[in-house]
Design goal:
- Helices cover about 25% and strands about 15% of the residues.
- It is built from 7 helices and 10 strands.
- A 6-stranded parallel sheet has the order 7-6-5-8-9-10, sandwiched between helices.
- Strand 5, helix 3 and strand 6 form a beta-alpha-beta unit.
- The radius of gyration is 19 Å and the shape is elongated.
- About 35% of the residues are buried.
C-alpha cells in the first residue's frame, strides 16, 4: 500500500490555494492512502482527497510571501515505499505544472448577499499600505445601503465597515457565503483569491502589476468574472501611495 504524507503549508493563504492544495490533489492520485497535515480551519481544502487530516498549529510567526521557517514536523515514514512531501522540496512551486482544483461551497437558496467584502486590515511586513481606508469603505457601502451586505475575513485581520458581520466563520461557511454571493469586493488578499475557487464574480484592486494576471487568468481556474482596478504608470514604484477612487469601485461593482 502506497502512502503519502503531506507536510503542512505554513505560508500565505493565497499561495496555499494556488501553489499547494491543487498540486497535492493531483499528486495524491497515485497513492492508496493520503495523510495531510494542515491548519485546523483549512481542512475543507483537502477533505475531498485526504483519507486523514491531522491538525497542525504553526508557532505563530508571520508567513512571508509563500512560506516561512516554521519548525518542521518529524518524518512520519515507516515503510520504504511511503512518501513524505514538504512544500520546500518542490522547486517549481508555486507554479506547479499540474494542479487539480474543485469548486468550493454549495449552492443554497437560504444564502444570498449582494455584496461580500473583505476589508483587509493588517500590517504584516509593513504591508498596511494595501488596506483601503475605513472612511472610504463606509462611503462605498453607504452607496449600497439598500443591498444585502456581508463582511468577511478574520476578526483580527479585517475591518468591519457595515452590513452583516460574518468575520471569523469557518472556511466551509465562508465558501457557502461566497458561492451564493453576487460580487466579492476588496483589495488583493488571500480571501479575495479564495473567491476564485467559490466562483463568485470579483471586484479587486492592487497597486502591484503582477496581481492582475493572477486574478484574471493564472489563479482563476473556473474563469470567474473579474474587474481588476490597477494603478496607472509604474505600479511597483507607487504601490504604497496608490488607492482606487470610490467611484471606480462603484462602477466596477455595477458593471460586473
Amino acid at each position: 500500500m502506497l502512502k503519502l504524507y503531506a507536510a503542512p503549508w505554513i505560508g500565505e493563504f493565497g499561495w496555499e490555494l494556488f501553489g499547494w492544495q491543487g498540486f497535492l490533489r493531483w499528486f495524491a492520485q497515485q497513492f492508496d492512502k493520503v495523510i495531510v497535515y494542515g491548519r485546523p480551519n483549512h481542512r475543507l481544502l483537502y477533505e475531498d482527497f485526504a483519507d486523514y487530516y491531522i491538525d497542525y498549529i504553526p508557532t505563530g510567526k508571520n508567513p512571508n510571501m509563500w512560506m516561512n521557517d516554521d519548525r518542521p514536523i518529524p518524518s512520519p515514514l515507516r515503510n520504504p515505499s511511503d512518501v513524505f512531501l514538504i512544500p520546500q522540496q518542490l522547486t517549481l512551486m508555486p507554479n506547479a505544472p499540474q494542479q487539480n482544483f474543485v469548486e468550493l461551497g454549495e449552492k443554497r437558496d437560504d444564502i444570498g448577499y449582494d455584496i461580500v467584502y473583505h476589508a483587509r486590515h493588517i500590517d504584516k511586513y509593513g504591508s498596511g499600505y494595501i488596506n483601503f481606508p475605513a472612511e472610504k469603505w463606509m462611503e462605498l457601502l453607504a452607496h449600497y445601503k439598500d443591498r444585502r451586505i456581508a463582511c468577511v475575513g478574520t476578526k483580527d485581520g479585517a475591518l468591519y465597515a457595515g452590513g452583516e458581520d460574518l468575520r471569523g466563520v469557518s472556511l466551509e461557511c465562508l465558501a457557502n457565503i461566497m458561492r451564493n454571493g453576487r460580487v466579492l469586493v476588496g483589495p488583493s488578499s488571500g480571501p479575495m483569491h479564495f473567491g476564485a475557487l467559490c466562483s463568485i464574480p470579483t471586484v479587486v484592486w492592487s497597486g502591484y502589476a503582477r496581481s492582475a494576471s493572477r486574478y484574471l487568468k493564472d489563479w482563476n481556474p473556473f474563469d470567474v468574472p473579474v474587474k481588476m482596478i490597477s494603478a496607472e504608470g509604474d505600479p511597483w514604484g507607487n504601490r504604497k501611495e496608490w488607492q482606487p477612487k470610490v467611484e471606480q469601485i462603484i462602477e466596477a461593482i455595477d458593471t460586473i
